[in-house]
Design brief:
The protein has about 280 residues and is mainly alpha-helical. It has a single domain, classed as Farnesyl Diphosphate Synthase, CATH 1.10.600. The longest helix has 30 residues.
Length: about 280
């Protein structure tokens, strides 16, 4: 369900791309340091955005180093770490753990069971540190799972549960910025859930999996791609409104690149591929 909150590389300056990659590499490093190799496997672009957002908002001091890794074995690259890298790594592991359990429950993927077991120790450690957040995440995922069992097709309702998860994750602490951070997280979460359903609609139909967009896909009176595009646009509009209310200066152009351009990269590709199949 992840990998949609990405940057649009052609529209980033070289320096901006290097800064973004340093946060991404720092996120990877934090996952390895706190949760081992299994934690590192949960790495995603989505929470890299959160790290940059919180780091810029709270003007945190970064620890910047240079290192090599498996992905970059020859040339050293910049690694940027701070407390938000650690926080995001903990939240990412929780999401990955419960998603693995959900994949086993829904599709009986054996690999998901093994992955969940690999993450179990880390999940318990994070749950002890963030019990309220962990309980809310578990509760919302249970609600999503119940919607799946009942074949609920109300996309606003189902995506709202995942929106609540991301709202809780984006709210690092209860302060003056909590309301706007929750709004950003809520609508980004809805965007991610709807994008995932939009992306997987044909695969889910073929494999008989749950997808709340099935009715709209089969509705002859609905332009499915346009319908989804309108909903996704509304989600990002509300998300961007909250973002612009925050007093962010550092990395603001990178963050805007992600919110106004990057999030549409996958959507545009999906739509283009679907039109190609249709012969349009």
């Amino acid at each position: 369900m992840f990998g949609y909150i990405i940057f649009n590389k052609p529209e980033l300056k070289f320096r901006e791309y290097d800064v973004y990659r340093s946060y991404y590499c720092g996120f990877c490093e934090a996952l390895k340091n706190r949760h081992g190799r299994s934690g590192q496997l949960t790495l995603s672009y989505d929470l890299t955005f959160l790290i940059m957002l919180l780091s810029s908002l709270y003007d945190t001091q970064d620890e910047v180093t240079e290192s090599r890794c498996v992905v970059h074995p020859i040339q050293k690259h910049q690694v940027r770490l701070n407390k938000f890298s650690e926080y995001a790594s903990d939240m990412n592991v929780i999401l990955a753990y419960y998603k693995a359990l959900d994949d086993w429950s829904d599709e009986r993927k054996v690999t998901s069971v093994f992955f969940a077991k690999m993450l179990q120790k880390s999940d318990h450690k994070v749950a002890e540190k963030y019990p309220d957040k962990t309980n809310l995440i578990f509760d919302m995922l249970e609600k999503i799972h119940n919607c799946e069992k009942m074949n609920i097709t109300d996309i606003d309702k189902v995506s709202g549960y995942f929106g609540n998860i991301m709202a809780e994750i984006f709210c690092y602490q209860e302060d003056n910025w909590a309301g706007n951070l929750r709004q950003i997280g809520f609508f980004l979460g809805k965007f991610i859930y709807i994008m995932d359903a939009y992306d997987d609609i044909e695969k889910d139909i073929k494999e008989g999996n749950y997808n709340p967009l099935k009715d709209k896909y089969y509705d002859a009176g609905t332009d499915f791609d346009e319908y989804c595009h309108q909903i996704l646009t509304m989600m990002m509009s509300e998300c961007s409104k909250a973002f612009e209310r925050l007093p962010i200066v550092d990395n603001v152009e990178i963050l805007r690149n992600i919110l106004y351009s990057g999030v549409w990269v996958r959507a545009d590709n999906i739509r283009a591929q679907r039109n190609t199949k249709k012969g349009n």
